[in-house]
Amino acid sequence: MIFEVRVVNVEDGRVEQGSFDTVPTLEQAEKVVRLMREFLSTMPAQFRAAVPFLKRGSIELEWASATGGVAFATFHESGQAATLAVMASDPFNEAGQGVLAGLQQSLNFDPEVVAPVEGPLMVVAALPGAAEWQPILHLLNTSLAAVYFGAILKQ
To answer: Labelling 52: which of 38, 39, 74, 127 has CA 20 to 30 A away?
Structure first.
């Protein structure tokens, strides 16, 4: 199943987007998705915990899933929020529209950034101060979305 990820760099407003599969074919991505799935399988619907499979840095995930197929995730690096994300398994339903609009309003994004698409959507705000961590955070956010959307949409 294909899902879309949009990453907004809060400092300069630059938006990157891409489509990904919940079952990746690249070996490195497949490994990270498997590790993320194993990690999440032992966690409750809401938590904050260190990401145990990382070998460097001090990255924690703050996670909350809610009814309506939506979830919120914040990755923290050394105690500071580095990315803030929302996931909507159906960006057109009430819950999906609500989380996307909430993110857009709270961070004052261009409404096009959160415009719904057919299929699952994750919008990530890359916060100032963690530029060197953005590649790994992008991989972690994308793997998190792959696991979440794969589970919630029963793939």
So the answer is: 127
What single-letter DSSP state applies at residue 116?
Answer: -
pLDDT for the residue numbered 132: 84
Nearest CA among 139, 147, 149, 132 for reference residue 18: 139
pLDDT of residue 52: 92
User: Residue 86's closest CA among 144, 134, 36?
Assistant: 144
Cα-Cα-Cα-Cα dihedral sign, residues 64, 65, 70, 71:
positive
pTM above 0.85? Answer: yes
Residue 11 — φ and ψ, nearest 5°? -65, -45
Residue 71 to residue 96: CA distance in whole angstroms? 9
pLDDT computed for residue 13 by the predictor: 87
Q: How many CA atoms lie within 13 A of 25 on its CB side?
A: 4
Where would I find the H helices in 8-129? 27-41, 94-107
- Spatial CA neighbour of 127 closest among 8, 1, 4: 8
CA distance 139 to 25: 14
pLDDT of the residue at 81: 95
The predicted structure's pLDDT at residue 129: 80
